[in-house]
Amino acid sequence: MADHQEASVTLPSDPASVATARRYVADVLLEWGLADDADTADSVRLIVSELATNAVQHTFGQSPTFTVDVRLERGECLRVGVTDSHPRWPRRLPAAVQQDNGRGMVIIRWLTAEAGGRLSVSPTEDGGKTVWIALPWPVGAPARTAGTC
Fold first, then answer.
1. Greater confidence, 123 or 102?
2. Counting Cβ atoms within 10 Å, is residue 71 exposed (0-12), middle (13-18) or buried (19+)?
3. Fewer CB atoms near the end CB (10 Å): N or C, the chain?
4. First to last CA, the chain
């Protein structure tokens, strides 16, 4: 396996692109050796869905596209980032019982932490941001020795 692998796709900020982003990442992970039915694959698909949905819904039409980057570093750490050009960073909203939305970042944080990973947000040169998750890569490493990234 290469020391560093990466893949990227840029999609229109349209609700239909969420499924395309999820499928793209699932295909990349499968190509890199992560079984489609692995817990990590399920978590990453849901995280990508939530991040892509945020990039579409919360940019208020000010980001015509979003980009999904997938990186595997040293066969140990999987990083997935979703970039949009809107300047507003994600915020944690209070979880009201009758609230129809606003739980995406809560879900992302929980899934990332459960998998032993971390979440971060970084600015882009054009004033937007990338929301990153980093997870230990489970392929080829026993669960006991898989570290955090």
1. 123
2. middle
3. N
4. 18
- Residue pLDDT, tens place only, 31-47: 999 999 999 999 999 99
CB environment 105-143: b (16+ within 10 A), e (fewer):
beebbebbeebbbebeeeeeeeebbbbbbbbbbbbeeee
| Dist CA 45 CA 17 (whole Å) | 13
Which is more confident, 25 or 145? 25
Task: Identify the residue whose tokens are 């692995």.
Answer: 38
CB distance 8 to 66 below 8 Å: no
